[in-house]
Amino acid sequence: MNDEIFQDFHPDEKYTTRIKNILTEYPHGSQILREILQNSDDAKSTVQIFILNHKTYPSESLFDSELKRYQGPALLSANDTIFQPEDFKSLVSLANSEKIDKYDKIGVMGIGFNSIFHISDVSSIISGSTYVLIDPHARKYCKRKPGQRGFTTDFLEHGLLNSHPDQFDPFLVEFIKSELIKKVKV
């Protein structure tokens, strides 16, 4: 048959609608910390640090000037494991967890991490030398394509720690001060 006579027709749920539905399913409050702890446990972490940071950080050397609004108060979390490729894949596959067939894992639904959007519009993750920004609203930071809901980069390979130090200050300043940083792989 001729492909030109067929038009796309498929279920489609807006990403922000899906996040809203997840937030309805996950209660506001301590559930966020439990989800982060479950992810740490699944990753075999032996240390989990939470810091409620009330500070505002410099914003002169960010990836994009529009990211300035996220240099303020934040919940910071760190553990002593590094994300594996399947962990990053799970972050972008809502309700399609890479842990589904792993019986030693707690989080298998692929949605728990998104409970953090109860307290944040944007989430950033640093694991090893990888920096990830997740933006459900698909703002056009860093000249991304329209509709792109985040980005990832190897910040060490590209020298971003030196060229954009303000982007990393909220992460590094607080964890370097912590005595537990010795156990955390940054």
TrEMBL record:
InterPro entries: HATPase_C_sf (IPR036890), SACS/Nov_dom (IPR058210), Sacsin_chaperone_reg (IPR052972). Residues 13-172 form the Sacsin/Nov domain. It comes from the Eukaryota. Signal peptide: none annotated. GO terms for molecular function: Hsp70 protein binding. This is Sacsin/Nov domain-containing protein. It comes from Gigaspora rosea. The lineage of its organism: Eukaryota, Fungi, Fungi incertae sedis, Mucoromycota, Glomeromycotina.
